Amino acid sequence: MGNCWGPPVDDVGLSSFNPGIHDTSIPGVTVRRPPSPVSIPGYGGGGGSTGRRGDRPREAPDSGTGGEKGGSGPAPATAAAAVEGVDGRLKVFTLEELRSATRNFRPDSVLGEGGFGKVFKGWVEQKTYAPSRPGVGIPVAVKKSNPDSSQGLQEWQAEVRFLGKFSHPNLVKLLGYCWDNRQFLLVYEYMKNRSLEHQLFSKGVEPLTWNLRLQIAIGAARGLAFLHNSEKSVIYRDFKTSNILLDSDFNAKLSDFGLAKLGPTDGRSHITTQVLGTYGYAAPEYIATGHLYIKSDVYGFGVVLLELLTGLPALDQNRPSGSHSLVDWAKPSLSEKRKLKKIVDPRLEGRYPSKAVVLVAELILRCLESDRRKRPSMQEVLYALEKINLTKEKLREAGPRPTHHVDHGHRSQMINRPSGSGSRGYIHHNW
């Protein structure tokens, strides 16, 4: 839920519905069509990568054999139980303080909206987090639940439990929380450059340079490696571009922990859980069996790395038949240099070290291995990316800047979305 506005993924079997995606039948997975489009940032509230979502159903109790049951456990009976053991440095806000910080939750301060509720921009004092007025102190993002939402306590609990216990430069920072009767609120740091999804796919956004793309990939890898290597390893379960938020310097921070699970214990290799996640990013073994491994996250990282390389979304029903899935379409070209050059984002204008592109393609293939045992760990992925980042090569002079129209061989599409299509991350928020 990271910079979370609303629930994390459209946890409807598999989430993140793109326009044009209809009810889909996958063995063992229940998916429903979300009822309406929304705009929500990666603070855990919006639709997935393109943007439609509805209220996500509550996750059924984990079950199955051979694996550890889900680590997050059942929802607490009270909000107070949910915050036991969290970082005491988190501020406990009152509802009145957050009303003041957001100017009584004014409509013009809305940053996004999802099944959980709305996210508002507010202002607080830098040191005390006391409510301030616009332009004074620091901006924050305030996520406020809908009293009628069935997922309010559950989503709020997941965010507080994970972000209240873990702190890392590449995880979005939770500043505090509030509960008042049936109102559940979360206060996060404000991320100026919204989400990676916004930077890659939104209309009118300056294309990310090769160096920035690598910087973002390395930051996201550090965050994921930290979770995997924590004392109680955490499986993120919803790694995607809309959940990678970017600060003013384009440093990546993971957001939206609503689907996160504590990893397997007692020597077990996986946990068994209801299949939830996002189309195009979920690992094949998880979709097929419900078995969730640490390296299931590595598959999702490989998909995001492929999006960074090509400038195309993981799933797009508007592309021609046979190329809806970016992985299926691009994977055959990753191992051949001649074909590889044709799928690199043309907005880079050739300004990248060709050797580095080959190395990134090789890393993507390793992350996307169908056999999860052959995938590298996130620590190995991080090491590989840091090594690739040292690859330097004289870049040729760039020609005229291309438009957002991208022609990748047999495909032609606009890499932008209508302003009405929803997504998590700060994609549709005029900050």
Description of the structure:
It is a single chain. The protein folds into 2 domains: 126 residues, Phosphorylase Kinase, domain 1 (2-Layer Sandwich), CATH 3.30.200.20; 219 residues, Orthogonal Bundle (Transferase(Phosphotransferase), domain 1). The strands form 6 sheets. The protein has a 6-stranded mixed β-sheet with strand order 4-8-9-7-6-5, with helices on both faces. It has a 3-stranded mixed β-sheet with strand order 3-14-15. Strands 1-2 form a two-stranded antiparallel ribbon. 25% of the residues lie in helices and 15% in strands. The radius of gyration is 20 Å and the shape is globular. With 431 residues, the chain is an alpha+beta fold. Helix 5 runs antiparallel to helix 11. Its EC number is 2.7.11.1. It is an enzyme of class 2 (transferase).
Summarize the structure.
With 431 residues, the protein is of the alpha+beta class. The chain folds into two domains: 64-189, 2-Layer Sandwich (Phosphorylase Kinase, domain 1); 196-414, Transferase(Phosphotransferase) domain 1 (Transferase(Phosphotransferase), domain 1), CATH 1.10.510.10. It contains eleven helices and 17 strands.
Strand tally: 17
Strand order within the widest beta sheet = 4-8-9-7-6-5
The rough form would be described as globular
CATH homology group of the largest domain: Transferase(Phosphotransferase) domain 1
Q: Examine the secondary-structure arrangement and name the CATH architecture of the largest domain.
A: Orthogonal Bundle
Q: In whole angstroms, how far apart are the ends?
A: 19 Å
Which CATH class of the largest domain applies here? Mainly Alpha
Helix content: 10-25%
How is the CATH topology of the largest domain named? Transferase(Phosphotransferase), domain 1
Keywords: ATP-binding, Cell membrane, Kinase, Membrane, Nucleotide-binding, Serine/threonine-protein kinase, Transferase
Organism: Trapa incisa
Subcellular location: Cell membrane
GO molecular function, one term: protein serine/threonine kinase activity
